[in-house]
Amino acid sequence: MIRLENVTKVYKGDVTALRGVNLEIQRGEFVFLVGQSGSGKSTFIRLLNREEVADSGKILLAGKDLGSLRSWSVPALRRNIGCIFQDYKLLEKKTVQENVAFALEVIGQPRPVIRKNVPAILDLVGLTQKADRFPDELSGGEQQRVSIARAFANRPTVMLADEPTGNLDPATSVGIMKLLDLINRRGTTVVMATHDRSIVNSMQRRVIELDRGVVVRDDSHGIYDEPNGVYE
Amino acid sequence: MYRIWYYFREAFASIWRNLSLTLAAIFTVAISLALVGSSLLVREGAERATAQFQEGVEFIVFMNADATGEQDGAIRDVLENSPAIEDYAYVNQEQAYEEFSTLFSDKPDLVNSVSPAVMPPSYRIVPTDPSAANVTELARQFANQPGVKEVATATEAIRQIDDFSTRVSQALLIAAVVLVVVSALLILNTVFTAIGARRQEIEVMKLVGATNWFIRIPFMLEGTIHGLIGAALAIPALFVVDNKVLAFFQESDAVPLFRGFAVPDGFVWDTSIWLLLIGGAVGMIGSAIAVTRYLDV
Q: How far apart are CA B150 and CA B258, in angstroms?
């Protein structure tokens, strides 16, 4: 599903975000990206979403080589990827259902499809009752659910999450993780960058640890900390 | 179909959100295009005004409408016998009226306000020697004859009209070009502001995979609408110029040839279509620059 071959990304001022990263993620996997701030997690996500282009190496996602992708075919790639963020990125002037519908509308989905899909997705994320509320009337957890609903509206095969629980309390975070787990069980590959130790430890999924742009650990059923306790 | 509705809805929502800037852009377009149109009208009017001077006619002797047969005969006598005159044609009051009616066929009010009885009969004269000095001298001699109302020489009249129309239409055109550039910049700025107001939406659109053109089109449509509305406002101004300003020259006695200074409504409509095209193009170009510079898609 996703393959990185010797990927390096250097930002202006010689800041190396990723260095010689090789890894493969299978369809349907749930992967945690862990590491300290500045370890390259966000860059990893941005490369997969093609917000950034690698300086060297090769990234394959759903059979597409992101390095040689023309700018006009980036939208087609993104329709296949759902993205969620720490700050939700919801449109304040649109209601919950309008926010979700917007994502379908702007990729040219016909209105009957939108009318049918939006309620189904709101039901999936448990926000049917709040369909007509505006984002600022919702709790943080609810806002993140809306953002997940929006990201999942077009049924992407890959879901990228950059610190999705970063602004949420532990109890709410558990709810969000259950939702991402549900989406994963429906066949969507999930890649989630996080700092949240308890979430990683309780989910027992694959853990990829980055340190200064290098993969230092890749456990198929890992926990947040390295088993021998070296990493902190 | 739904997509087209979406583009228009977004464009108009944005126009409404940004009304004061939009109005500034629209009025600037209107003023600049009104000037472009006026310049074209003046030029066309000048061409028509000089149309009587054709086939070698260098000067025209206008007789008083109430000139006596004796006075008329004296003039005719000179024309028949003078070696300085190659040829001439007499235009009687009836013919003058007819010419006038044709020239102003689309202004029945003006035609109805005159009758053959008030039209000056005239001689259109082809001199043997068409040099300016000779024509001026001949004109001076005829002007002093009794019964002559005035003499219009081609050189003088055409130079006057050319001078006048060239200067006026050039001045208008320069002002117009400057204002067209200003309006393109205003549209650019308005669309830039519109893009700023929708930054978040654009970010989400890119994120979920909206195509670049899907994001661009509403903004370009917005700019094009500015241009078209501006042009639409300029069109009535064009008719005012046609009816008031050009009519002022037609009715003035100061320069006899300005009476031919008229353009048919058909020409005004043609010019209007050009204004719409220019307006639309200016709006589209202004917004396209804004979109390519600031949208980053």
A: 14
